[in-house]
């Protein structure tokens, strides 16, 4: 942790001098007072690119701007989004910082590093940059659709109005980047990265990342009609990747970013820990969606073994709550428009666990004084406290030393994710392997990763899940899977994938639009029509204002190229 914090300090200090670009106009002007690229350290560039990737994913400490993961968790009812309609969920300016991090930081650093690394024979540096560029640009397509790429910081030259490329062409370019990265990882390099923040320069693990990203790419495009994509291509490519046996299949190869524990100079903690416990971030709008907590608390005979690691309850019941705090508590009966099978207002204590206080999907009521009641993010993956039934009020700046003190992770591509993707592919494309077996392995690996991550806090307590409890939980899921038709089976695969994806809204948002599952999500908390679902997001306000080649969308409901499902497929 200390090493990472020191690295982050050096990155932030050096970047202030080295790269002062702070605008999404991509107008890159070389400063006579700054170091020129030939004087810069390739290792420094690589570290900055890696940090930017984590921030694009998870956001930034102490800032109101969220990363793509947060934007993805809200529409799919993992995290609460205010609404009250999908169109009003976000403002285009909400995406300015992410857009800036991609175009004015990460891509510029990659394009500056590449020729330096190639000239020096540092092919591992080059390969890592290619892998991260592919990940970043695929994510931009997933959220925004057609975006600038081929002319964006092309050749290191600033283009004021880069053209917008089709999402399909960017995906094709990303796939080629991953192929090229694997080739570069097979070359003899002059030196390995001195501070690889992900894998300490392990080339074998980076190859697995590249291959797993290709698995994701071809699963994502199984419905696409664009040239080079579609079901037959996806089936062939996925089978090749399976037979190659170079995927992230073991937790030791998980692709994650490890945050530190410093709370200043710089703040190296997980951004969600900062928001939940320090009071410096956007804590006022951090609510977990009731649907997601109910899914884990009450779907099966016993609560999910991961629930105490994911969430921290500050209250055991609501008897002391001021009724104004949550006005729907006072409802005598459910409103006619509410689905009675879904949790209304509060998560019911069906399986004996009470105190899960979140918000319903698109509930845009004002923020009440409910800090002492709100369920917070727990140990995994943000580094908060383990829920041991202590029910302490730990929100706010007085709780900065709780749990793992913010030493959480950004779970970008975990081994469990690979198995859930393989399960979906086996069920929908009939690719190699058994969907049920993949499902079971994915569940078990996710539970194992979470339990291991929180072992220092949970071990020896009566709340640490036993192997018998885990086996019983998995057996019940598989029994339901065996009893269902193909629609039920896909729903169960995706539900369990969603649970494993806690704090990775990128993959959850993609999976929901691709599969339409889970098809039993909580409805919008409004008597009015919430409007079309967010099939993509608004373009950045700054980008739309400054680039004449970008026309702002009339509504954030235009599907991205791989989402060929009909209107109303998701809501």
Provide an overview of this structure.
- This protein is mainly α and 571 residues long.
- 43% of the residues lie in helices and 3% in strands.
- The strands form 3 sheets. It has a two-stranded antiparallel ribbon with strand order 1-2.
- Helix 5 (123-144) runs parallel beside helix 7 and helix 12 runs antiparallel to helix 16.
- The longest helix is centred in the N-terminal third of the chain and has 24 residues, at 96-119.
- It is globular, with a radius of gyration of 23 Å.
- Mean pLDDT is 89; it is low at 1-29 and 31-35.
What strand line-up does the widest sheet have?
1-2
* Helix/sheet category: mainly alpha
Gap between N and C termini:
41 Å
Strand percentage: under 5%
- Averaging pLDDT over every residue, what do you get? 89
Instruction: List the total number of helices.
Output: 18
What shape does the CA trace take?
globular
Number of strands: 6
Order of helices and strands: HHHHHEEHHHEHHHEEEHHHHHHH
Largest sheet: 2 strands, antiparallel
Q: Roughly what percent helix?
A: 40-55%
Rg (C-alpha, Å): 23 Å
- Uncertain residue segments: 1-29, 31-35
Layout of helices and strands:
Layout: H1 2-18, H2 42-58, H3 68-73, H4 96-119, H5 123-144, E1 147-148, E2 164-165, H6 167-185, H7 203-220, H8 231-244, E3 255-258, H9 271-278, H10 290-298, H11 307-310, E4 311-312, E5 376-377, E6 409-413, H12 415-429, H13 435-453, H14 455-458, H15 467-483, H16 486-500, H17 505-515, H18 541-546
Antiparallel strand pairs: 1-2, 3-6, 4-5
Helix pairs in contact: 1-2, 2-4, 2-5, 4-5, 5-6, 5-7, 6-7, 7-8, 7-12, 12-13, 12-16, 13-15, 13-16, 15-16, 16-17
